[in-house]
From TrEMBL, chains A, B:
Binding site for Zn(2+): Q254, H257, D356, H415
Family to which this protein belongs: Belongs to the histidinol dehydrogenase family.
Cofactor note: Binds 1 zinc ion per subunit.
This protein's UniProt keywords: Amino-acid biosynthesis, Histidine biosynthesis, Metal-binding, NAD, Oxidoreductase, Zinc
Protein name as annotated: Histidinol dehydrogenase
Binding site for substrate: S232, Q254, H257, H323, D356, E410, H415
Molecular function, one GO term: histidinol dehydrogenase activity
EC class: oxidoreductase
Assigned EC number: 1.1.1.23
GO biological process: L-histidine biosynthetic process
Phylogenetic classification of the source organism: Bacteria, Bacillati, Bacillota, Bacilli, Bacillales
Catalytic activity: L-histidinol + 2 NAD(+) + H2O = L-histidine + 2 NADH + 3 H(+)
Length: 427, 427
């Protein structure tokens, strides 16, 4: 791994907005689904996924779901159930109540907090179909109280069947209420506008390829969407007490995701820097996804050596990484100084995969420096708030003149008159 | 006002994404500011606002601020202070604490909640400079704990001075910490990328013209932005007990905003429908902004008569209005049935201007049907969350095998090994 100065390093990469051809193709697909519904949906599913379906075959049946449970190993079901339990427990703590502020003049002001009514979750086909991502998208919606959670995923084997049984089982365990075998931009458009077979949703989330990402941007406003994730990142902040083999393993676990992934060590120990660099080389040799991890380490990996831990913290705050591991002797001492990081893993035993799969916090975390202003997925992403204003007669009589002054100052006489007419008739 | 069927009416309008020329112009401005900073900022300020400034004149001085306080009426300062007090009090109740979940195995899981560090608020020039909007954008950020709140507003009279003193005073009362006399797309780009004179921010909010809106879209991702508001809307849900003169005044207070604004009455009383239609005509006659209000009422206003209140509630939920007034005999009975509405005003004395200016809840509320999935501005819009994971050795030893099974199932051996190496060395 190369050793670079803090100034020379930035996690941020250009966002991929697709080619003009990809954008045009997506716009066309979205329009076709909007105007002809199932007809276009079935046609694109045949064209892109090679599955020649009819409308009545779009929805996954209970029978298929039961068959999927037979197909997967019991140990997988146990592992997914345990992870789902932890994730649910952590997200339960994020739930909030509607509240009211009761004023002495009889007025009531408040915020009403409600779940979204219907949410769509996109799950990619093939190798990118990660059961853990299904849990992380679906459980927060379910905990928020969303009554209808719809999963869409492409028919992956080109036949009429062919949805990964692990995904089906995970979706059922997480709380999905409807599943459809459609994918790509056509699935996103179907969720946004609805078709004869699929009712429209209020929000669409979940990862996908560039066509899925562009389709989500295209329908944003008609429905809400989640943010579009960049390549994954880890920054490890370590002092001389850290274990170089653990750090190397954690850096590689990030690097194996994707050639664009980024794995950075920030340390105040030159000795640790050298030991980690050597460990990374050694561990790379036997890693199955060696080629991916190596490309990531070469192009987007780095070791940054600082004078002090404090200086290292400045680097971390500037990078605003998706994942931060703090492997120093007293990690708790530094948490309060971390201003920008999506998820913070503390100490020797909090390896990132603990959070990726199991501990409970969400693994969908802001990338590309956006932890400066955004947050991991949580229950808040699946609720909406309404303000409530009940003003008493007493309150209106006491404050009406002030309200009218403010309205008239803005040249909005109609606003002032809405108050004036009440003061005249009730005063 | 025309009486229409519920089926024939929809609040939603196409969103204005600007002409290709406007988009190209904004892209150019953003690139110029990104690459040459103050130089481009001063040049565009001269070109578009006619103000020939130097860099040292961009920032509003304390002296100017003091002069502004001398210029405005004491009654205005009192009114703004009273409104700011109420808005602050309501938003204070939205603050949340970081939290931890302490597990019996010694692990700690939590969410760290922090304010954004630096926020930019855009305030339009000229007649669209509403002091109330300054309060509604700035106070939630201030209550969230944002230490640096920067206001930008165009120099409005074409000279070196020329910022509306009411805006300056309101910004100071709300908690703005820096003010710059720049506007348009160039101001948005300066906030996003920073210049020699203006440090970059983490989030940009506040209304503006189409160039401001396009610039915000252009810089989204580099910084966070607020949502882009459509024309304002009110729906009044009323029964036969409601006062037609109050309803008409409230509908007109919305209609006077903008020819594109929408004012709708939904009622189960044909008699009330007729009375409101007649009142609207009568009150329109003496309204200063009669032409605007009349165009709005003609083109985007309607009275929808339903059989029952329940049917009226279905209409409301479908429309998902920005503002909803419930003027029925027992308004509290119906709040629980409202699924989609940005702000809900209850009873005869909760006229919309009460909320626009004074009561406390935010007046920046989702438009265009987006109350189905989004919320009024609040303190949550100015915080970010980080997950915290401290896993104990005991927890890792107990759960390591399950985590490895999930990782290996996804083909991510590097993830499994990050756990395995610890189990080997510590187990």
């Amino acid at each position: 791994m190369k050793i670079v100065s803090a100034q020379d390093f930035d996690l941020r990469r250009e966002v991929d907005y697709g080619s003009p051809e990809q954008n045009a193709a997506v716009k066309q697909i979205v329009q076709d689904i909007k105007h002809t519904g199932d007809k276009a949906l079935l046609q694109y599913t045949k064209q892109f996924d090679g599955a020649d379906l009819t409308a009545d075959l779009l929805r996954v049946t209970d029978k298929e779901l039961q068959a999927a449970y037979q197909e997967v190993e019991p140990s997988f079901v146990q592992a997914i159930t345990a992870a789902a339990h932890n994730i649910r427990q952590f997200h339960e703590k994020q739930k909030r109540n509607s509240w009211m502020d009761l004023q002495p003049d009889g007025s009531l002001l408040g915020q009403i907090i409600r779940p979204l009514k219907r949410v769509g979750v996109y799950v990619p086909g093939g190798k990118a179909a990660y059961p853990s991502s299904v849990l992380m998208n679906v459980i927060p919606a379910q905990v928020a109280g969303v009554p209808e959670i719809v999963m869409v995923t492409p028919p992956s084997t080109g036949g009429k069947e062919g949805i990964n049984p692990y995904i089906l089982v995970t979706a059922a365990e997480a709380g999905v209420t409807e599943m459809y075998r459609v994918g790509g931009a056509q699935a996103i458009a179907a969720l946004a506008y609805g078709t004869q077979s699929i009712e429209p949703v209020d929000k669409i989330c979940g990862p996908g390829n560039i066509y899925v990402a562009l389709a989500k941007r295209e329908v944003y406003g008609v429905v809400d969407i989640d943010s579009i994730a960049g390549p994954s990142e880890i920054v490890v902040l370590a002092d001389e007490h850290a274990n170089p083999a653990y750090i190397a393993a954690d850096l590689l676990s990030q690097a194996e995701h994707d050639e664009m992934a980024s794995a950075i060590l920030v340390t105040c120990s030159a000795q640790l820097a050298a030991a980690v660099a050597s460990e990374v080389q050694q561990q790379l040799e036997t890693l199955p996804r060696q080629h991916i991890a190596n490309a990531s380490i070469q192009n987007h990996g780095a070791i940054i050596v600082t004078e002090t831990i404090t200086e290292g913290i400045d680097v971390v705050n500037r990078l605003a990484p998706e994942h931060l591991e703090i492997m120093v002797e007293q990690p708790m001492n530094y948490v309060g100084m971390i201003e920008n990081a999506g998820a913070i893993f503390l100490g020797n035993y909090s390896s990132e995969p603990v959070g990726d799969y199991f501990a409970g916090p969400n693994h969908i975390i802001p990338t590309n420096g956006t932890a400066r202003f955004s947050s991991p997925v949580d229950v808040d992403d699946f609720i909406k708030k309404s303000s409530m204003i009940y003003y008493s007669k007493e309150a209106l009589l006491a404050n009406g003149n002030t309200i009218m002054e403010l309205a008239r100052h803005e040249g909005l006489e109609g606003h002032a008159r809405a108050i004036a007419i009440r003061l005249e008739q009730e005063g």
